[in-house]
Amino acid sequence: MNEIVNPESLLGAKEAGAKESGAKSEGVTETFFGGCPHDCPDTCSMLFDVKDGQLQGVRGNPDHPMTRGGLCVKLKDYEKRHYHPDRLLHPMKRVGPKGSKQFERISWDEALDTIVARWKAIIDQYGPQAIAPYSYLGNQGLVHGLNGGDAFFNRLGATVTERTFCGEGSCTAWLLTVGPTAGLDPDSYIHSKYIVIWACNSVSTNLHHWAIVKDAQKRGAKVVVIDAYASRTAKGADWHIAPKPGTDGALAMALINAIIAQGLVDQDYVDNYTVGFEELKERARTRTPEWAEGITGVPAEDIRTLARELATAQPAAIRMGVALERHYGGGQTIRAVTCIPALTGAWRHVGGGVTQFGVWEHPYRFDVICRPDLIPEGTRVVSNLQIGRALTGEMQLDPPIMSMMCWNSNPVTQAPETDKIVAGLMREDLFMVSAEHFISDTASYADILLPATMGAEMEDMILSWGHLYLTYNTKCAEAPGEAIPNNEIFRRLAARLGFEEENFKWTDSECLEHYVDWSSPACEGIDLAYMREHGFARLKVGTPDDRAPHRAGNFPTPTGKCMLKVEGATNFVAPPFRQMYEGFQPGEALDPLPDYLGPRESHANDPELAARYPLNIVSPKSHYFLNSCYANMEDKQRGQGEQFVMISEADAEARGIRDGDRVQVANDRGAFKGVARITDDVRAGIVVATLGYWRQLNEGTVNSISSGAFTDMGHAPSFSDNLVEVSRAN
Ligand SMILES: Nc1nc2c(c(=O)[nH]1)N[C@H]1C(S)=C(S)[C@@H](COP(=O)(O)OP(=O)(O)OC[C@H]3O[C@@H](n4cnc5c(=O)[nH]c(N)nc54)[C@H](O)[C@@H]3O)O[C@H]1N2
Ligand SMILES: Nc1nc2c(c(=O)[nH]1)N[C@H]1C(S)=C(S)[C@@H](COP(=O)(O)OP(=O)(O)OC[C@H]3O[C@@H](n4cnc5c(=O)[nH]c(N)nc54)[C@H](O)[C@@H]3O)O[C@H]1N2
Ligand code: SF4
Ligand SMILES: [Mo]
Predict the structure, then answer these.
(1) Which keywords, in A-to-Z order, does the entry hold (predicted)?
(2) Residue 274: what are its φ and ψ, rounded to 5°?
(3) What is the pLDDT of residues 156-207, one digit of tens each?
(4) Are 325 and 204 members of one domain?
(5) Structural domain boundaries, residue 280
(6) Based on the domain organization, do 178 and 239 belong to the same domain?
(7) Which residue lies with its CA nearest to atom 8 of ligand 3?
(8) Which residues line ligand 2 (CB under 6 A)?
């Protein structure tokens, strides 16, 4: 195996204006530390093999306790993505009709001058809020993911685009209940005796945690997966429980009922470390397993068994997936689930408790990264989930959005109400800029395209939301064509606009010095030099073998206790991913106690709609794609197959659909097509179609039918709360 070289000298040379790093070691393959920049809880530590400035191959870092030397199917040949023939290599301008993908190469100067001139004209006529940024965690780097863009657009005075794609409803519920704690360490599951994976398809989306779960299973742990269908993960479990989508809140309330009714409460833990037990007990009194059976379709006896095992097989662990938040009552569901380990006392044990996001204990300085202090007072906030409504004018905005810049995100495939987004992007008077690796579905509508660098071509540290390690990524390969890192794009734009703040002048290395609170206790003994030398570092927040942060309460809530009940709370959009801003108007009052709020689009809640669109669709992640990334690459397409629609035998038969038929999935918002896959893996009434397929390669996408309505908390998306009808397509 190649030796890991310390890249520091190379970086220094680069910044002093020397040749590209790769050129230093002609003909020799050297290995550098990388970090997977994708939006994935595993944030793998990688090894980049580089020769003559070219990425030759990638491997998982064998020394990283979670990566354990392995990468997923998406990243195992990451170099192919770097050198894909369709990669965007030069700035381009649109020369055909919007969306026609007719572009012509231009220089960086022309591209940036055009952007600045158009923006200045828009600001003169409409004010800066007529410009809207659009980004997400397509790159999770602190420098090239979160930074640059946020600080830049805040300084510009642009509309703040709220980013609530993923986890903000969960974060709101989590903060209300237990506060900003990483909770149960995913590494500690090796000590768990009972593991519940709830609305998470770990085999596809959290592979390195699944490996730990499998090890625990070999050591005798029972693994339970609660999923709306028989996912790959459900098939690897000892027990698959399949509630109807969006009914998990009823299941969670019935578990609370059954834990109490069976006398399984850890009363000492409850008395000392929780607030509101008596009220929760009263609330749960009528939420019996029989009541929940009628809603969820899960037999009452199974609910009692799950409650008993969860309470008695300690340490018991619950891993919540983001899909738990994806229906109208998602926030309340997550509050209910988060209460369970406090009732059973699971927090007392290493390997017991509940896991949401590790990010809460990472010492990232989001205020320095995103500069919310630069946002002019009174700036409006528009939701990234409702960008179609904003662009088309359905949402009344004064001034209207006249320009949008998109990077690190692909809303045309990923955001709901696609047809509205496309209609908005087709507006002749909208000036659209996209920084991208490929001409994605969104970039197809750009007026100016900017080529961005990829993984091995830029220095960064990768935010990890799913574990407790810091991750470093070396700039070790030459960027092809004229691609530059996101942060350099914003540095150049800031310089042209005369922004004087020092953060717009920091090099990427200097950014990293500022973006992590290196003096925090979690970073004891760790600094940037350490990161460069070792590639990753475990935060000093306890080890997987001794960490039980809430053994004796110690919750970072206002009371220091687990809040089963929260008095006077109002809805809010939680940090950290939503773009930092002050002055969010407090939302509607929240129920002090958790409860079941069913889905919005259901037979119970909207029978008229359900009569026309009787099927509930779930659109989880694709195994071979990373959101919409890789869906344009042939080998991944081969693995994933074309867009399919999983449907039960009964539903297929009632519609005259045979296995392999081309079908249309539709509702009032839009339609997409796919191939019917008749299977027992879904129950009647539910269809499953996975996410990420490109609209330009398929007829519509799953988000053509998705609603942009928020759930109960944190302006979260309702991707699991959509009714559709499926029919044979001609
Ligand atoms: N129906 C349905 N919809 C969903 C979901 C679902 O489960 N169901 N999941 C939701 C979730 S959890 C999320 S997080 C969102 C994700 O939504 P997005 O973040 O929009 O997802 P990606 O497809 O990863 O888009 C990232 C884009 O950024 C580009 N990119 C990557 N790195 C860089 C870079 O360094 N610079 C620049 N300029 N561009 C870069 C990639 O090429 C890609 O086109 O989707 C949401 N949408
Ligand atoms: N291969 C792959 N890995 C990924 C991604 C990817 O696109 N592809 N995306 C990354 C991102 S951005 C994220 S946020 C994570 C997300 O990873 P996960 O948390 O696993 O999220 P999803 O895949 O959206 O959904 C997980 C499971 O929840 C189930 N589900 C949906 N609705 C419900 C419901 O109402 N109740 C119950 N009980 N189950 C439900 C789905 O059937 C699915 O099997 O994965 C990351 N990793
Ligand atoms: S996508 Fe996730 S599992 Fe795959 S290499 Fe990246 S961090 Fe690891
Ligand atoms: Mo996500």
Answers:
(1) Iron, Iron-sulfur, Metal-binding, Molybdenum, Oxidoreductase
(2) -130, 160
(3) 999 999 999 999 999 999 999 999 999 999 999 999 999 999 999 999 999 9
(4) yes
(5) 169-356+548-556
(6) yes
(7) 44
(8) 39-40, 166, 199-201, 204-205, 226-229, 231, 243, 245-246, 248, 321-323, 326-327, 618, 620-623, 625-627, 692, 720
